[in-house]
Specification:
Strand order of the largest sheet: 2-1-3-4
Number of helices: 5
Order of helices and strands: EHEHEEHHH
Oligomer: single chain
Number of strands: 4
Largest sheet: 4 strands, mixed
Strand content: 15-25%
Length: 113
């Protein structure tokens, strides 16, 4: 399973740039493999991302903005959903991955059982 992070390399928005860096930095720091899919440089990536963000996760007007996160073809969420999962120590569940032993998420799950 490959985590795909849809980003815009040439975004004019500093907020979007920071969010993209935040997601990719977290994944890299936690050794979670991911693929960066640039919607600014690749029209196919842009089209695929826009078509595959579920209707109930789209903005009221306009198109979904990066970063958008997928596990292969399965939609995980946008930056806000990622941020909430990170705050709840639930990023692996958010990504559809098994938390590695010893991680905060795995320990929290163990305590709940």
């Amino acid at each position: 399973m490959v985590i795909k992070v849809y980003i815009a390399s040439s975004s004019g928005s500093t907020a979007i740039k920071k969010q993209q860096q935040d997601v990719m930095g977290f994944l890299a720091a936690n050794k979670i493999e991911f693929e960066e899919c640039d919607i600014a440089a690749n029209e196919e990536n842009r089209k695929w991302m826009r078509e595959n963000v579920p209707e109930d996760h789209r903005p009221a007007t306009g198109n979904p903005l990066p970063p958008q996160i997928f596990n292969e073809e399965k939609y995980c969420g946008n930056y806000d959903a990622f941020f909430d999962a990170r705050e709840d120590n639930a990023v692996y569940a958010f990504l559809g991955l098994t938390a590695p032993p010893g991680s905060k998420e795995a320990e929290a799950k163990k305590e709940q059982q």
